[in-house]
Design goal:
The protein is an alpha+beta fold and about 625 residues long. The chain has 18 helices and twelve strands.
């Protein structure tokens, strides 16, 4: 059964689903609710007060884009026949200057998400170098100063950061694009999410020609095919093949009345001598949408040139106070973070010194063990030498006794006597050789004894050195400092050399993980009883001076940014695939070569009278 049958109409409410840029909201709305009722419900839900920029968009029964009318009942409009009824909550009108006009952070965020989506979906043309810059701001808005985004190569490949058109037009791998983005991303350190989103919008506003424009196909009296661009500053006329560079513009300040009849659109200028500006659109529904956007942009244009209402003044004051408070908190957090980093570096230095001392102790232990082994080996060798010397002495004595016995029992005969003398001489030679061996062994034993004495002296020196290392006051101070530093950050581990240090083992050291909450406290500790005094007159004066200084430096920063963009463009120029360049790319390249920029072009085409511009339009 259809969701809007008669049976359903008897119910008191119907379901709707509103999709914002970062959420999906579902409501049950009364059957007689107006567009204003539903729109206000959505704004209250997301906390939006600058609601005049936004609207509820849907696709009507004919497939055209339409905006929900505020004063008309929802059910009396050509909404989709679905349940729940789908709507998109989008920015319908754009400010002239995002930094000056947008007040709430939620407003910045919604504009940021919508512009980003339009760039990535290629509804807004963005050159490669500007795409890289905007991607870096997008990363800063999402990750802040987190190391998560600058970790291993390839971590950003899952992020949708660049338009597919840019990726396809260059012979660059995802890692190469990632490297270019990270270079810019590193320059945004300490920038808050709100600041990064605002910078993103400022770059898009100042450098992207299609930003903030709604395009519609039109024709003039000569039936030339043209584009009409409805913007916050006025109406732009573009040639069919060029939506970047407008040929003519009609500021809202020169327009008195706007109306259409069937396919004919008539705009009456304030200049009395100027004829009406007339163009044609092929579809009646498109004319209704053009008129709706023209009226809304014209009303906002005139509203900006009047004193702010009390509501807007109050919002701006609250926003300034909130930004001042957050700036003070960020500065306080940055100072505490810096103190923590200094302390952490000192702790790392203490840790390094402790490891160094432990290494020295381990080396001393190894030298001591080596000395002990050498002493044992030398003692063994000395004992063997002594035993060999004693054995040789005994053999020498036995030989001497044998020689004496031979002499006493000499043979009477001369032959026997000569033989005995020969044997005696041989025995004497053997004995003399044994005596020499005995003396050599004795000398070796003496040498080994001397080496044993030297080894024992080396052992004593090693023990004294180890005792000096472990008992020194510097070592104790290092241990005490490490324990004090650890306890000041509420860690459960301390720097302590275990009782088994002489075995070469060092206990692992746990380093603290400090979060923003740990540094800033629970909130009460920061504000305490003086929370109302955080924002002083001095703080407001400093903030005002900072704003003035930023305005003075804006042109210099803009030139520097342009130089950086040009450098990036020249770096990747050699990797460009010419056969994949679109007509938009060629047009943008030509504008760059001619030194044309978005606002320079608008200033040029505003020159002259309205009458002359209308005549020029008729001749297109």
């Amino acid at each position: 059964m259809a969701p809007f049958s008669k049976k359903n109409k008897s119910k008191k409410s119907f379901p709707v689903k509103v999709t914002t840029m970062d959420a999906e909201l579902e409501f049950h709305v009364e059957w007689k609710a107006t567009g204003r009722d539903l729109f206000d419900l959505v704004c209250r839900t997301i906390g939006l007060r600058e609601m005049w920029y936004f609207g509820l968009q849907f696709i009507d029964s004919k497939g055209y884009v339409a905006w929900l009318k505020m004063e008309k009942k929802v059910q009396h409009q050509d909404i989709p026949k679905e349940s729940p009824v789908p709507f998109l909550f989008l920015a319908k009108f754009f400010p002239e200057d995002v930094e000056e006009e947008l007040v709430q952070e939620v407003t910045w965020h919604l504009f940021f998400l919508q512009v980003k989506e339009s760039i990535l979906s290629m509804d807004i043309y963005c050159p490669a170098e500007a795409s890289v810059l905007l991607a870096s701001y997008s990363m800063q808005a999402k990750y802040g100063d987190s190391e998560e985004a600058t970790g291993k190569p390839g971590d950003l490949q899952s992020e949708n950061l660049l338009p597919q058109r840019v990726i396809d037009q260059y012979q660059m791998t995802p890692e190469m694009w990632e490297e270019k983005i990270k270079v810019w991303y590193g320059d945004h350190r300490n920038m808050s999410r709100e600041e990064a989103e605002l910078e993103y919008l400022k770059v898009a506003q100042d450098r992207l020609e299609m930003y903030g424009a709604n395009y519609f196909p039109i024709s003039n009296k000569k039936e030339s095919e043209l584009w009409l661009g409805v913007t916050a500053l006025g109406l732009n006329i573009y040639e069919k093949e060029n939506r970047l560079l407008p040929k003519i513009t009609f500021p809202w300040s020169e327009i008195k009345n706007i109306s259409f009849s069937d396919k004919k659109f008539t705009i009456k200028p304030i200049e009395k001598s100027s004829p009406d500006f007339i163009f044609y659109s092929s579809k009646l529904r498109t004319n209704k949408l053009i008129l709706e956007l023209c009226i809304g942009n014209h009303d906002l244009f005139m509203r900006r040139r009047k004193p702010d209402s009390m509501e807007i003044q109050q919002m701006k004051v609250q926003a300034r106070e909130e930004r001042t408070r957050k700036q003070i908190e960020r500065e306080k957090f940055a100072k505490m973070k810096q103190m923590y980093e200094i302390s952490f570096r000192e702790k790392e230095e203490l840790h390094r010194r402790l490891l160094q001392v432990a290494d020295e102790a381990r080396l001393a232990q190894d030298a001591l063990r080596q000395s002990e082994k050498t002493i044992e080996l030398l003692a063994e060798k000395a004992k063997v030498a002594e035993e060999e010397a004693l054995l040789l002495t005994q053999k020498a004595a036995e030989a001497e006794m044998e020689m004496q016995r031979i002499r006493i029992s000499a043979i009477k005969t001369e032959e026997e006597k000569m033989l005995m003398e020969q044997k005696a001489r041989e025995a004497e030679m053997i004995a003399r050789q044994m005596v020499e061996d005995s003396e050599r062994r004795a000398q070796e034993a003496d040498r080994l004894k001397e080496e044993l004495i030297k080894a024992r002296l080396a052992e004593k020196v090693a023990r004294d050195r180890l005792s000096t290392i472990t008992d020194t006051s510097d070592f104790s101070a290092i241990l005490l400092s490490a324990q004090c530093t650890g306890s000041s950050y509420r860690t459960q581990s301390t720097y302590r050399v275990p009782s088994s240090a002489y075995s070469g083992c060092i206990q692992p050291i746990s380093l603290p993980v400090v979060t923003e909450e740990d540094l800033c406290g629970s909130g009460n500790a920061v504000e305490g009883d003086t929370g109302s005094e955080l924002i002083t007159a001095r703080d407001m004066e400093d903030l005002s001076l900072e704003i003035e200084r930023e305005k003075v430096e804006y042109q210099e920063r803009s030139r520097s940014l342009q130089d950086q963009l040009n450098n990036l463009k020249s770096e990747i120029e050699t990797l460009k695939l010419e056969d994949r360049q679109t007509s938009m790319d060629r047009l943008h390249e030509q504008l760059s070569l001619n030194g044309e920029s978005k606002f320079v072009t608008l200033d040029k085409i505003r020159a002259g009278t309205t009458r002359a511009r209308v005549a020029f339009f008729e001749e297109l």
